[in-house]
Amino acid sequence: MSSLALRVIWVILTLTAIPASWLVLIPFSAATGHWWGQMVYGLTVTVMDSVFAIGLIYNLSRMRTTHSFCIAQATVPSIGAYVLSGICICLAVSTYSTVFNLKHGPLRHRRNPLEWKSIYILPVVLWPLAATSAFLTTSFKEHTSFRSADGFACEIQHPLWPRLLGYAGAPFLASLPCLVLSIITAHRITAVSRKRRAPPNRQEQAARLSPIRITSERVTAEERVMSRLERERRTQSFLASAHSHEKQLDKISVVSMPHSLSDSAWLPSPPTVHDAAVSDLSHVLPESCSGLQRYSSHLEPASSTLPSPFFREGAGTPPSPITFAPVHRTPTVSSRSPSFDPGALHYYDGLDQMPVSPMDCDDDSTTPNTEQHLVVHRVQRWSQLPQTSRGGSKEDGSMYGTWPPMLAGLTRARSGSLLPSSELTGALRRILFFQVAFSCIVVLAGLSTWIDLARHRDEPSPFGTQHIALVLVGWGPFFVFGHLPAVGGRVLGRLRRH
Known about the structure:
Layout: H1 3-32, H2 36-60, H3 67-100, H4 121-141, E1 145-148, E2 154-158, H5 170-197, H6 202-209, H7 219-255, H8 271-284, H9 289-297, E3 300-301, E4 345-346, E5 359-363, E6 378-382, H10 421-455, H11 465-481, H12 485-497
Antiparallel strand pairs: 1-2, 3-4, 5-6
């Protein structure tokens, strides 16, 4: 390929990389809710690609550039490499601490990895300023020549070793920690994902279905639950005994009546017994008086006017001369107490809701229970929550059940529905992949300079790997984050509006 065609292609690639990067960085920032890293990256790429493209355009039009602009062309890529390496360090340290630091609880309770922190001034501001000062001071002190080679942008031509203080050396040393931390974090997430996808064996399944171990933080809550269960058991036992006592009274009254009893006779009203039972129960269990009052208030009659089973309308005069006067009911305090009808009462669970316990209790309060089902039925289910250690932190296998807030916007599609956990894992992996890719791009940027220094060339290669790295830095966000549902949905939505 001729030098002219190569320069034209590189002008097109660098100029189109600017809108391509902003097309992804803006929706990505809107989805995550944090802008500083993406905006600094976009501005740096814009300045680097613009200066490089303008220099190529000047050379294509055979216009001679000024010496100051030639120096700017040679120094801007190095300054941009300093800033981008600082951003990479911030992201690598933040994601590593988010994944590995278990002292701050689950991931969802930790700080956003993309959130700005004051410590970031060191790698993003102070590090580029110090490196730029050292690079310019050394370049001018060694009387290096800044000129273009074969019609490309201006660079340091002789001597070459000051390039090691620019994009060919210093950013690579700064990106080494970023590369190491990113690989370790990615390996950690991959290992945990494989562990979660693997089918559990019998021992793990038995451990998940076993009761949760009582820790020091839960002792008070567990004692409260057991106390409430004991009070409820005693309440149900006492109500059941009162109910059996009522049945015995009914049986005794029916058996002791003579056969010549008039059909219009009335039995003693059982609500008196019921009220006494409730009153006695309130003395036995004073702590649950409020619950028992609600319990008795929920006794709703299906029909409060139904007569006694021994009463029939239109009954004639009794065949026996012996008659019994109707027994008057004892007045009660509550006006809601209905006349007793074994088939008319509906019992509801009026007790307080129990707190969260290792065993979930489902109260069937919507389906009424008759007198025969006085005891409230509860179904106990074993909890499948992950076990906790003494420190209260979750185990490794469940640490990634919920993802950090940085992915809150990325987990929603255009319809607003939550995406599955695989989408969350994919988003976090793309961020780590971007960190690793940037470190590799920095290595690629200095590869040609290292080869030229190793071969002791007087003139460096006019087209080197640093030009390829410049294009990849601009197009990198588009290929890495452009496939995320939140980013792609926003981009397609804007294109459809226009």
